[in-house]
Amino acid sequence: MPLHIHNTLTRQKEAFEPIDSDHVRLYVCGPTVYDRAHIGNARPVVVFDTLDRLLRARYPKVTYARNITDVDDKIIDAAAQNGEAISDLTKRTEQAYLDDMDALYNARPTIQPRATEHIDEMIDLIRQLVKLENAYEAEGHVLFHVPSMEKYGKLSNRSRDEMIAGARVEVAPYKRDPGDFVRWNPSPDQLPGWDSPWGRGRPVWHIECSAMARRHLGKTFDIHGGGADLIFPHHENEIAQSCCAFGTDFMAKYWMHNGYLVVEGEKMSKSLGNFITVRELLDEGHSGEAIRLTLLSAQYRQALDFNREGLKQSQSSLDRFYRALRDAATELEVESFNAAAAPDALMAALEDDLNTPLALSVMHEIAAEQNKA
């Protein structure tokens, strides 16, 4: 059966039809590198790694881009608090992120663009928005003028009042409209900055992904993914910038968002003492496979309640799968996996909007049959 995915843009499940069947292009928002990755950060990595593998089993070429945000106010604040150079902080935390995601058996994306390596593209994109009067300069800032895009808000399906409230709009006298959002910030000499037509400054979060996606995947591409928390304002603003600057009707044809992750029924928070990093779990002796399986135990669009009991259950499942393989005298060759030889029921489950719980139930049935034999 063809792959079906739930498209956040249309709010319905659709058959996946790539723009070019010979080359599928996927972009997923990556980390802002200022601290260790927590388990919530790991969920989209595992989800979209699974999607990437499924796409590669069905199409001759897949380009998967996942960015690294290495210029951001959070990074500046963390470096100042730690008393270390910004470049040292980003280099250290980026490597820690990659190591932790590797430990969860995620393949590296085709491309991992860094924001600081694409400043020229960001400036060009902002310059184009200003030229088209979708953006304007004010007191060293450049802002996107939300009323200039008629379809703004289509992805999040929010009213204008809801969007302004949800964005926690900063009140500033230089704004033409309360909903306008900054694309370029002035930057003093002691902070990271680059020369631009609007003075020395630095890019603001949303513009980075638009520029990097354009550079590596084109003006339009097949799938854009990320966590549900990014739908608004991040992804909404990406669409506005890209469509206006490039004159396209869409940025990505399909938008996919994984659900929230909670811990023991509560939102993860350092103040609640339930903030869990991937490295903590690995250091406790939990296997990367068990963590990965736990993150796939719920359908990706649903909320996931992560707890250590679930990790134990995942490890038991893994033991059962490996026992079935051992009894069948079969070696597990992950790299040589052939989707064409996989059970139809397993592939059908994955192709039904990444229904990993159903896929796992198929695997348990196969293990049960093997044990009986």
| Secondary-structure content class | alpha/beta
Average pLDDT taken over every residue: 93
User: Ranges with pLDDT <50 over ≥5 residues?
Assistant: none
In DSSP terms (H or I, runs of 4 or more residues), the helix count works out at: 12
Give the helix level as a range of percent. Answer: 40-55%
Q: Give the helices and strands as they follow along the chain.
A: EEEHEHHHEEHEEHEHEEEHHEHHH
Spatial extent as radius of gyration: 22 Å
Main sheet strand line-up? 4-3-9-10
Beta-strand content estimate: 15-25%
Beta strand count: 13
Question: For the terminal residues, how far apart are their CA atoms?
Answer: 30 Å
Shape: globular
**Largest sheet geometry:** 4 strands, parallel
Brief summary of the model shown:
The chain is 42% helix and 15% strand. The chain is an alpha/beta fold. Strand 11 (261-263) and strand 12 form a beta hairpin.
Describe the protein's architecture and organization.
- The model has no long low-confidence stretch (mean pLDDT 93).
- Helix 1 links the parallel strand 3 and strand 4.
- The strands form 4 sheets. A 4-stranded parallel beta sheet has the order 4-3-9-10, with helices on both faces.
- It contains 12 helices and 13 strands.
- With 373 residues, the protein is α/β, with parallel strands linked by helices.
- It is globular.
- The chain starts with a strand and ends with a helix.
- Helix 4 crosses helix 6 and helix 9 packs across helix 10.
